[in-house]
Amino acid sequence: MIDPLELVVSICLVLSGIFGLVGSYGMVRLRDVMQQLHAPTKATTLGVGGALLASMIHFGLQEGQFTFHELLITLFLFLTAPVSAQFIAKVHMVGKLRRGDLPKPGTEGEWSIFAPPPEAGESGKAGQTRGGGKTRGVTTNPGA
Amino acid sequence: MMDAALIFAFGCFSLALVLNLWRLVVGPDRATRILALDTMTIDVIALVVLYGLHIRSQIFFEVSLIIAMVGFVSTVAYCRYVLRGNVIE
Prior knowledge:
The complex is a heterodimer. Chain A is mostly helical. Chain A has two domains: 103 residues, Orthogonal Bundle (Helix Hairpins), CATH 1.10.287; 31 residues. Helix content of chain A is 75%, strand content 0%. Chain A is built from six helices and no strands. Chain A is elongated and about 65 Å long. Chain B is mostly helical. Chain B has three helices and no strands. At the A-B interface, helix 1, helix 3 and helix 4 of A face helix 1, helix 2 and helix 3 of B.
């Protein structure tokens, strides 16, 4: 006789495997970085979520050790996947795009990927604070 | 039945790891390589969770949580290094 809980766990596992495989296959198949970003950040995250859901159902309802650890991992992965995807897209834009490829931003200034790093813009301030730190180090060294 | 599903999921995620490795080696771009490394981390988390299901032990959840955190931090650090030439400014 088939246990319905075991059936649910098995369906979750099979779906998670299919989603994980589709994510990596999409990354191999698609050509551009902006297209490749779609596959792992969505499909693979869903696949891991399915595996964690299966684990939670199995340990919680079949073996009586119900915990929320898996939900913690799922929440963490669902929070961090968009952040890392945005960072990777920025890396791609810095490497491949030139100034003329993007429309003008609506506000003053420039796109942040083309703007100089904040150290170059505020060199006076940064130099002052750094010099202050250095002199402080010099003054404390003889005392010690 | 659950064991058969586990073996299927193991095979799927292992094949996904191999595909990611191919993209990591071949990938013509730095962004593609960072993406492949990030996806490999997530696949390894799934494999650890599946192994915990396989041996019926809950001891691997801390492992997967720590791998998730370290993987995210390493992805962000790699991207910051490429973007700014420095990880912590």
